[in-house]
């Protein structure tokens, strides 16, 4: 049997993406991933990634560069205007992830894996690239002055991120082809609404009591 021209490491990442997206991160054994990748060496995965977390980090890294680059470009444009607006910043949150819906190199699977990671008891968030500030950290800093102290204390920014990734993962699981401009624009509107919604008197009172 001829050997695949695709490097073993790449085949293992692609197999991990498929199985993690289909069955969940904890629903797949490393041995199953090795078999799916067509590896005859049962220790190949451990050799390349050491363990499950190493493979997950490789999957995240595969997509992180593109997502980070897209978001930084949008944040650069928002800052160039002089006064970044919530709609511009909301689009900078949504669009880089939404583009994964039309990324044929595992983009849809990445969204499903990523949302499972960020919804864990100990969320796994994408790191920055090298010594650079991560795009989500930069986004949070630009949104911060546009929120009231109460909105910040209610973790509106994190809630918006969770909503966007959850909704995009739902689209990623759908058999229907997404209308990307509509999905992106609609989610951007909802992020603006989430971030800017007034804090009600009842919520403010509960927040003060929580203090």
UniProtKB/TrEMBL annotation:
InterPro entries: Homeodomain-like_sf, HTH-type_TetR-like_transc_reg, HTH_TetR
Alphabetic keyword roster: DNA-binding, Transcription, Transcription regulation
DNA-binding among keywords: yes
Domain of life: Bacteria
A Pfam family it matches: TetR_N
Domain called HTH tetR-type: residue spans: 6-67
Name of the protein in question: Helix-turn-helix domain-containing protein
Organism, scientific name: [Mycobacterium] wendilense
Source taxonomy: Bacteria, Bacillati, Actinomycetota, Actinomycetes, Mycobacteriales
């Amino acid at each position: 049997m001829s050997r695949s021209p695709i490097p073993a490491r790449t085949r293992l990442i692609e197999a991990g993406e498929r199985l993690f997206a289909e069955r969940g991160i904890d629903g797949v054994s490393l041995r199953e991933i090795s078999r799916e990748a067509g590896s005859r060496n049962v220790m190949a995965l451990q050799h390349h990634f050491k363990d499950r977390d190493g493979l997950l980090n490789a999957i995240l890294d595969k997509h992180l560069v593109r997502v980070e680059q897209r978001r930084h470009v949008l944040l650069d444009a928002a800052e160039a205007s002089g006064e970044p607006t919530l709609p511009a910043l909301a689009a900078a949150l949504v669009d880089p992830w939404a583009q994964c819906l039309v990324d044929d190199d595992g983009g849809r699977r990445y969204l499903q894996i990523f949302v499972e990671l960020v919804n864990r008891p100990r969320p796994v968030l994408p790191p920055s690239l090298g010594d650079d500030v991560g795009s989500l950290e930069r986004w949070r800093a630009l949104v911060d002055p546009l929120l009231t102290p109460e909105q910040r204390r209610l973790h509106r920014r994190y809630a918006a991120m969770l909503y966007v990734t959850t909704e995009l993962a739902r689209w990623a699981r759908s058999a229907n082809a997404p209308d990307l401009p509509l999905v992106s624009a609609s989610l951007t509107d909802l992020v603006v609404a989430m971030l800017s919604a007034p804090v009600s008197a009842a919520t403010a009172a509960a927040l003060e009591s929580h203090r």
